[in-house]
Design a protein that fits this description.
Blueprint lengths: L5 E2 L22 H11 L25 E2 L25 H28 L8 H9 L3 H6 L3 H28 L6 H38 L4 H35 L4 H11 L2 H17 L6 H22 L7 H4 L1 H22 L5 H30 L15 H5 L6 H27 L6 H31 L4 H30 L26 H11 L1
Parallel strand pairs: 1-2
């Protein structure tokens, strides 16, 4: 009878290799981790071993020899978050479910509200969720009537802010799981570097986004106004940098608190970053844009001062990032994903623009399917990235998985992260059903959806979630193979793809329902007058406010 031998963490020696102690935690001790995962890969998804690593350290007598990982340090140098020696912790399924469900339902409430508000201003000119939120929240109609480019700016600006915050949350969650948040000096160094990095990214990207909004607005309106361009640039940079600065410290507090309470930050911080901050950002944009507009004719120089101040601060933030070992590499590699995500989300906006003019009620459910899909895949992306940092050296795919796995193994049973994928897929089913019934009831003042709608919606939403989770598996492992840190690059692509796939699949569901004679709201009176006409973005001065504001009242 074969017996197993478990090597206690205290028995793992560094064999005199002093160089290991100075390497980053995500790359040291990794050879033993690879051995561990290779041995355990015969059954990588076996239940809950609370005190063991991947496939080991639990109570199963049939396990092979298991060497606990050290979190990148020689023993005696401090344990990691996962327990003695910082080994990879296997969470109980109920722990993962409970922790993920908190931000999941917070985000769900937000997407329901966004869909209802957007439904109130539904028209053939498709504005995204954030635009409707602006219309609902702000009382400063004058600036939006005159500077209509703000409506182009907002969706891209909030998408940018969300991606920057989620990447920061993913990076710090990985460090928490590697056991690198135990020393307060290291924590302060890490937080300062990451906040400075986000400030650099927010300043540059907000400037690029404002140039995009100015260019599109000039093409649509047939004219270029320099004072409006300066107002857009100053407002964009102020909103992006200020909101990121405040919300980044909120996320840091959430990660540190969850780490102290022995909760996995991957389950909380990343989806929370996706679901908070939009109202704050919209309020900041409304405030600064209105304030600058009131004095635009007499104090245009203020916009120059605002823009100049941010560009003067930029070298200071860059200096902090370069001096910080945790964020230095991201300064040159983190731009392409964030800017590419804006383009992918723009394709989703084209789908939305087409669908809103065809399908009644489409905008009520579009934020739900997009938001839920993006939040769930961000959790999986953060957890896969963390496990790769714990179990391998960047550039080497761990033996327990590969880039292109069979979908069944990647999503249900086969690789170590399949358990989380199962939980996310199963969680999406009751969550989506609850959200669409609540949204429908609030939008229609009664329940109008039947079995055809529910089945069609659930089918496309499940396909979207499963496709996103599988794409996450492929993209993250491919990035790891190509020595690209997925904490800095994966989430922007995945959330943007979530927007594109969600809008496209939902349009197919509405098209199918229409073809079988069961369109959503088919027994309701058709909307006769659109609140926002197709050329509403071209309306200037009082015309826009006269057409827009009364409908929201």
């Amino acid at each position: 009878m074969r017996t197993s031998r478990k090597v206690a963490p205290a028995q793992v020696q560094c064999d005199g290799n002093e160089k290991l102690s100075v390497l980053p935690a995500s790359t040291t001790g990794s050879l033993s981790s690879i051995i561990t995962t290779s041995v355990a890969s015969s059954e990588p998804d076996r239940g809950d071993h609370r005190d063991g690593g991947v496939g080991g350290g639990g109570d199963d007598d049939d396990n092979n020899d298991v060497v606990a990982t050290t979190g990148g340090k020689c023993l005696g140098g401090g344990g990691g978050h996962g327990g003695p020696g910082g080994e990879i912790k296997q969470e109980a399924w109920w722990e993962t479910t409970l922790q993920i469900s908190i931000p999941f339902f917070i985000a769900g409430i937000g997407t329901i509200g966004a869909g209802i508000i957007l439904g109130r201003v539904e028209g053939r000119s498709a504005l995204d969720v954030e635009i409707a939120l602006i219309s609902f929240l702000t009382s400063h109609w004058k600036v939006f009537a005159h500077v209509t480019e703000l409506f182009i700016l907002v969706p891209a600006l909030l998408g940018l802010k969300g991606n920057l915050d989620m990447c920061l949350a993913s990076r710090l969650s990985t460090q928490a799981n590697l056991g690198n948040l135990g020393n307060w000096r290291d924590v302060a160094h890490m937080v300062v570097g990451n906040v400075a990095l986000v400030q650099v990214q927010a300043t540059v990207a907000a400037f690029i986004v404002s140039i995009f909004a100015i260019s599109v607005g000039a093409a649509m309106n047939g004219r270029f106004l320099f004072d409006h361009a300066m107002l857009l640039t100053a407002s964009s940079m102020f909103t992006a940098t200020s909101s990121c600065f405040v919300l980044d410290f909120v996320l840091v507090a959430v990660i540190l608190l969850s780490n102290k309470l022995k909760m996995n930050p991957d389950n909380l911080a990343t989806p929370l970053a996706a679901s908070i901050g939009d109202v704050v950002s919209i309020s900041l944009l409304s405030f600064i844009a209105s304030l600058l507009f009131e004095h635009l004719d007499t104090h245009l120089w203020i916009t120059f001062v605002v823009v100049t101040c941010y560009f003067i601060l930029l070298p200071f933030w860059v200096f902090l990032v370069i001096r910080n070992k945790y964020t230095r590499p991201v300064l040159t590699t983190g731009w392409v994903p964030v800017l590419s995500a804006l383009f992918i989300s723009g394709l989703g906006g084209l789908v939305l623009d087409t669908a809103v003019g065809i399908f009644n009620g489409f905008v009520v459910f579009q934020p739900i399917i997009n938001g839920i899909g993006g939040n769930l895949v961000s959790v999986q992306a953060s957890k896969i990235s963390t496990m790769l940092h714990q179990s391998s050296i960047i550039g080497i795919i761990p033996p327990h998985t590969k880039i292109f796995e069979m979908p069944w193994k990647a999503l249900f049973k086969g690789v170590p992260y399949a358990k989380t994928a199962r939980i996310l897929i199963l969680m999406s089913i009751p969550g989506q059903v609850l959200f669409i019934f609540v949204a429908d009831y609030i939008h229609m003042s009664e329940s109008t959806i039947g079995a055809p709608f529910v089945l069609s919606y659930m089918l496309v939403s499940l396909v979207q979630v499963m496709l996103l989770l599988y794409i996450a598996h492929v993209i993250i492992h491919a990035m790891w193979k190509w020595k690209i840190d997925p904490d800095n690059s994966a989430i922007p692509y995945l959330t943007a793809l979530g927007d594109l796939l969600g809008s496209s699949f939902l349009a197919l569901a509405f098209l199918f329902l229409q073809s079988i004679g069961h369109p959503y709201g088919g027994d309701q009176e058709e909307i006769g007058a659109t609140v926002l006409p197709t050329d509403s973005l071209k309306l200037m001065d009082g015309d826009m406010s006269n057409n827009f504001a009364p409908q929201l009242a």
